[in-house]
Amino acid sequence: MRIAIQGEPGSFSHEAALKAHAEATILPCALSAEVFRAVTEGAVDAAVIPIENSLAGSVVEHYDLLLRHDVGVESEWLLRIRHNLIGVPGAKLEQVRQAYSHPVALAQCRRFFEEHPEIEPAPYYDTAGSVKQLMELRDPGAAAIASVQAASHYGGEILLPEIEDNAENYTRFFLVRKRDQVVAEKEPNKVSLAFAVENRPGSLVEALQVFAGLGTNLTRLESRPVPGRPWEYVFYADYQLGDVEKAGMALEMLNKQCSMVRELGRYRAASSD
Known about the structure:
The longest helix is centred in the C-terminal third of the chain and has 13 residues, at about 245-255. The chain folds into 3 domains: about 1-80 and about 170-180, 3-Layer(aba) Sandwich (D-Maltodextrin-Binding Protein, domain 2); about 85-160, D-Maltodextrin-Binding Protein, domain 2; about 190-265, 2-Layer Sandwich (Alpha-Beta Plaits), CATH 3.30.70. By secondary structure, the protein is α/β, with parallel strands linked by helices. The protein has helices at about 10-20, 30-40, 60-70, 105, 110-115, 125-135, 150-155, 205-215, 245-255; strands at about 1-5, 25-30, 45-55, 55-60, 70-80, 85, 100, 120-125, 140-145, 155-160, 170-180, 190-195, 215-225, 235-240, 260-265. Helices cover about 30% and strands about 35% of the residues.
């Protein structure tokens, strides 16, 4: 199976893709738009994309890309995010003066930097990319913060494991395919969808009452601006199903209340176990 990811080999997306399909061939892409293009053009069978982090929040660009392309969500799962301080082989912690990583990863390791004021956080475009750069520079005074997968892939040495502030750090990933190639889940219990309402008083409340009336558990709701249409918004929602038939009922009722409704995926809810 060929899976596209955004980021360098050894990234958390790479780790998540291998967790989904251990024997997959991974296609790294520099930009998220390239990931979706690879799926829609058939260059890969699927893509693995981060959609939400339990600490940093949503990856809003990916919601926009899901709506823009003819793709669907086949499954979701959670990856425990473990940040590690990685150096070149033979380097010592006391030598390190700079630690490179993605800004989100650096922000999730604030306690480490407070305890090691001699080490300066240095923003970089990608967690795994920072390890790749480190191994090219071979500077014992530099380090990177990334996954075990990145250290293994590039030959780095873990100087300190699991330096993240919060152990309850999970990223939710989607497996995405072309819409007509999504393998339907036999017993789905969760739905992701996008909808837009008319710009009039009470329109959003009316839409949300659909979920309440059907007894579904709305687990997530987020608004995103519509490009080129100021002060108009698309709402992205996740809800859990007690009864599979209610997913179709919700869509039918929302179509009567909303100016646009699109189901993004129907799948099994992930567990953090």
